[in-house]
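so the lab meeting is tmrw and i was supposed to have these ready like two days ago... anyway. pasting both below. for each one the top line is the aa sequence and the line under it is the structure tokens. i havent really looked at them closely yet so no promises
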Amino acid sequence: MGRAAQMDVLVGVDLGTTACKVTVVDGDMGIHSVSSAPYAISAPHRGWAEQDPAAWGTTVDATVLQALAEVGVTDGDQVTISLTGQMHSTVLLDEAGEPLRPSILWCDRRATAESALVDERVPDVEAITGNPPLPAFTLPHLLWVREHEPEVFARAATVLVPKDFLRHRWTGRTMTDWTDASGTGMLDATTRAWSTTILDALGLDPALLPPVVDPVSDGGDVLTAPGRALAGAHTAVGVGDQFAEALSAGLTRPGDLSITLGTSAVVLGIADRPVPGAFCHAQSDTWMRLDSLHAGGKSLEWLRDMMSPGESVAAFAELAGTAPVGSHDLLFLPFLMGERVARGGGAPGAFVGLTTEHTRGDLVRAVLEGVAFELRRLQESRGTTLPEDVITLKGGGARSALWCRTISAVFGIPYRTTDRDAAYGAAMTAGISRRWWPDWQSVPGLHGTGDDSALVDAPLLDERYRAYSAMVAGLSARTEETR
């Protein structure tokens, strides 16, 4: 027998740095299918990182069709797609909409001199955009191409970020949303429009830049589909990948906070006004702060490699359970990968207070606590308050219940975990675009109840956090003195 009714699904596509992931969900935000596929990064010179936009398109087409086939979607079914993807990366198109050169990725380091040029020409750039002009951003990439590949720059008609290039390839429509635009280094974070101050100071033509729209705006119908299941599918404009991660973690209200525990540890927080370090969030009246600790999960991996090579990180983390809260007064500074506690330089990683009486368990617990302390310090350095209800934890490190409880106690907030990701957040954007829900807070299952079982340890860990913060402040002061 045939199917009883037409299918209606949402598709989230995440164009990551090394792979794409596609998630298909229904109206209750239940996941029906997940597919992924890798692609390569090219490094033609030291410090460079590039990708072929055409390879993105081929890989994404095949992965979307695979995910739809697993659900049983065919032509005639209703499909709404929203994209997310790596932010800051630069795609230059000619008049015909074809890429002029490989995309310069966010992890490319060639545009250091161009970043300094932006600082020189636009002294108030950070006040305008909310962030300094980092070499990762689109603006320094553009200036590099203008300086080093003038014949390419002269032919450029449009500059897009990866997700917007893919949607343009499908629909022929050229636009971007304000989350990705705020990561280019050219958007006024208050007005959510391209900054004429920045463009004029650097001699850039505003016509190079696409219109900036709401992430849930109509992105157009798929016109150039590689398979019948995609033909006529509708698209929403979508958001940058960090914003899709935030949405999937339920970060839609001012004060919401999440931590992703991967190799690095990323803190995402929502504010109701532009603040230093913030980008424009999906909702028009919210902004998102992003802070990161480079050696988040890496700190634990490093200690495992030193003390117990070959053991799984999960099993190694369990050693912390053999030590008491507070690690017998042992403190760990997780500055293992060039972290900076002041503008003048980096701080050293260290175990402080180490004695012959400390055990392996003390060292492991000190690492878990030290990472938690630094994440709280990063969050508080923005001058914002902590949320009252729940903190959302995700990533590989969140599979350690002990680490989750430690972070919860250090922040003094109940925690919950989620395994939802950026592709899921993109699918949420598709649903809002379709008006399946009246607002972000109405998305099913977005917010949950937190586990407060770890808060009994909060007073002791707060005391240890104060000691940690004082130590880092001392390092910061000494670093400033040596500038």
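ok protien two:
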Amino acid sequence: MTVRTRVAPSPTGDPHVGTAYIALFNLCFARAHGGQFLLRIEDTDQTRSTPESEQAILDSLRWLGLTWDEGPDIGGDNGPYRQSERMDLYREHADQLVAAGNAFRCYRTAAELDALREARRAGGHSTALKPSDLRLADEEVAAREDRGDPYVIRLLVPEEEGVCVVRDMLRGDIELDWGMIDAQILLKSDGMPTYHLANVVDDHLMGITHVLRGEEWINSAPKHKLLYEYFKWDMPQLCHLPLLRNPDKSKLSKRKNPTSILYYERMGFLPEALINYLGRMGWSMPDEREKFTLSEMIDDFDIQRVSLGGPIFDREKLSWLNGMWLREDFDDEALADRLVDWAFNRDNLMRVLPHARQRMETLSDLAPLAGFLVSGILPLSEASFDSVKGDREAIIKVLQFALWRLEARREWTRDLIWDDMKGLADALDIKIKDLLAPLFIAIAGSSASFSVVDSMAMLGPDMSRARIRHAVEVLGGVSKKAAKRLDKEYMALGAL
């Protein structure tokens, strides 16, 4: 048997370090067994998926040194490798399940579903809806069908109590209560598949033998096992890797830790160091050394060396490891080359000079004018905002609202950022210059910089958002209570 693994990210935002972590372990497992590693794009969320996000995923993984044998950019014998291009396959397999009596059309409305869940809750049961909860009388089904009412296709799941045993490569047999498993939607009313159907169909048709994924998917494993049984397919071996965590042991999130690979690239971390650090997330080399290359990890890879304790993603530890790489693996010539490639290249200069030259009298003026564009997180303090009108709470509110608006921004251009900020200023009934004032400090560290909107366009979304989050924290942060209040105010502004 040829080992085949995959990673299947969704192109709905900045490329996530968690994606790189899962990709790394799938790649190492496949290569260690002389197998193949695939990349598949799960873009069935058509409202949030963008070609720009897909390209960022491909570029970021390649920047880290990860390569795949089949994928949307290089092709292969099992394509297409974008789910949006495989829709007929999902409909065909959903209809096959219905015809075999292993799935059913559900015409229940949203209001009816809410009432059913509330009834189960009132009866002391879980809110997992079973086929018996959802089925309508044959006459009612016929009436709704005649009216052309929308329907979804749901999975037939066991009604009775009992456990589903799922075999995991690291955890052994996992017992999961069937009572908590709902009649999962497989095909939505718009014809789009859910993750569960598309994932199983794609993994089978692409010949995936081992699925290494995050432990958040453990509770979905019974649904997947059931689908494999209904289709009479062999199920891949499952391995649920521990989730990356913040230093406070919570799930890794952008609220507490930058999660975008682009952020770490923009910060000046070496791809060799970042992939080395991700390799240490719950795994260790046989000799326990901390610094190793990707090829060394592949040579010594053993999935059984994964620890199930939640690995902590600590930026300080990453910085320390990155420093080791800089000092031990790069002479002056190599380091100079990396610096030029990273920030001091002609393309970057050509983006900066149209703004900086208006303020330059000597060549040496460029560094203080544009230094913030090749910096990481700026050394701000609360006093940095003394020149900004308004009290601390008002400044935090402006920064937080701007951050939320920019987090929703998918396309990142100067004009679109300006439209977002102007729309926010109008909604808050304040002058645009008053809204931009604290952003100047957050983004450039000074109000004397050139256009903050142009600066954000050049910095990119990951670094811009990270600096605004940092500014909010410098000013004291937002408590849970304050966050609820601000969120209510922000939502009251309506569509900006």
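from a quick look at the 2nd one: The mean pLDDT is 94. The chain has four domains: 4-71+199-241, 89-187, 261-345, 370-492. will dig more after coffe
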